[in-house]
Amino acid sequence: MNIIGEKQSGLASIFSVKCSYCGHVNEVKCSGEHRAGNRGPLVSDINTRAVLGSLHAGMGNTHLNNLLSTMNIPTMNHRLFKRREREVGNAVENVARNSCEMNLNLEKNVSEQLSGPSTDGLVGIAVSYDMGWQKRGRGHNSLTGHGAAMGLNTGKVVSYSTRCKACRVCSHNKVTGKEKKHDCRKNHSGSSKSMERDVACELWSKAPQSGVKFSIYVGDDDSTTLADIKNKVPYGVEKWSDIVHAKRSLNSRLYNLRDCFKGSNCSVLSPKVINYLTKCFSYCINQNVRNPNSLKKGLKNIVPHAFGDHICCDNAWCGYKQNPAAYKHTELPYGKDLFGDSLKKALTDILDEYSTDIVVNKLAPCANSQRNESLNSTIGSKNPKTRFYGGSESNNFRVACGVAQTNIGYDYIGQTLE
């Protein structure tokens, strides 16, 4: 056999092979093919798989070509890459949506078993919610963002949405004055920070369409998001605080106090002391789960205990009550009590804000939204913050890859190819 010609399309090739006996020329394809639309030529499987692999690995056309050229393999032009990206991207979004519906039904069934039927016909479920932006830092000038509600029972995404403030095709149309038909994903014009409450209101308002309501919301104490939910959502929502965010908030406030505190004859508010106080705060919450009264009492005793006042301490955790003669603080400098009235008052003022009835009731469930942080990390591996994919549908496709992987694992790749 003699190869007399080759047609290339991305990574796929069609060889023209001439028979050395009869001279007939046959075409040999090096990749399987499939139908990608209602008409037009068949599409090579290898190109579709290469683009899906790029989305899964967080790469774009340039990075894929860098890899292929280093391996001395023919590269893929940007037009072919974009066509195949739109093909697999829409399929990934369908897989992600289906996985969310499946998890929502699981959460619904668990909640019905625990709480029974509701009077309004909607099953209340508890979810954690957080927003992620595709930009380093706080992301409050990012052009894109995504928000997701994740069930507390399954730990999976039950609903998500994206926000985008840019579209390259729309920008080009404005310059040229021509209208090009395209799948525009631009859906936000306000500030990047307002994306968080905008997505939250959308997810909470859309929940009744599936016969559920997000009756419990776990997240950071962003007052604007909670206020918008209460004003725009047609059912009541109970707020639980994220204990991880609460601990970070306390830690930041203590460091700010350290920078501005100028009291005399007081202990030094060193990082070791701050770590001790935040650790006591965390222990107190975890030891009094769903017990607001005990939690409130414990929070009010953190500062007196550190300053050597053990009158109101609980025998269960206070070492001084168990052995007063030999007791030393294990975490404070030199094992000694803190001292200084002005320092004690400043610390008491801060801890008192966390021991009010409203805050204690939010902290008592000991809930957190770390599952959302894990989701944001997974999405970040598909949609890196060092690169911008928000000018087209690519941003949404990559978010869908992260959601699908979180919900069903790496099986989402096989389901997408089906």
- Could you name the ranges where pLDDT drops below 50 across 5 or more consecutive residues? none
DSSP strand count:
10
Measured between the Cα atoms of the first and last residue, the distance is 35 Å
- Average residue-wise pLDDT: 92
Strand content: 15-25%
Structural summary, described in words:
With 418 residues, the chain is an alpha+beta fold. The chain is 48% helix and 15% strand. The chain contains 15 helices and ten strands. The protein has a five-stranded mixed β-sheet, sandwiched between helices. α1 crosses α3, α7 packs antiparallel against α8 and α13 crosses α14. The longest helix has 38 residues. It is elongated. The two termini are 35 Å apart. The mean pLDDT is 92.
Could you give the topology of this structure?
Layout: E1 2-9, E2 12-18, E3 25-29, E4 33-34, E5 43-44, H1 45-57, H2 61-70, H3 78-115, E6 123-133, E7 144-151, E8 157-164, H4 168-176, H5 194-206, E9 212-219, H6 223-232, E10 238-241, H7 243-260, H8 271-287, H9 292-306, H10 319-322, H11 341-353, H12 357-363, H13 370-382, H14 394-408, H15 411-417
Parallel strand pairs: 6-9, 9-10
Antiparallel strand pairs: 1-2, 2-3, 4-5, 6-7, 7-8
Helix pairs in contact: 1-3, 3-14, 3-15, 5-6, 7-8, 7-11, 8-9, 9-11, 9-12, 13-14
What is the gist of this entry?
The chain has 418 residues and is an alpha+beta fold. 48% of the residues lie in helices and 15% in strands.
Tags for this entry?
418 residues; elongated; alpha+beta; 3-stranded antiparallel β-sheet; 15 helices; 15% strand
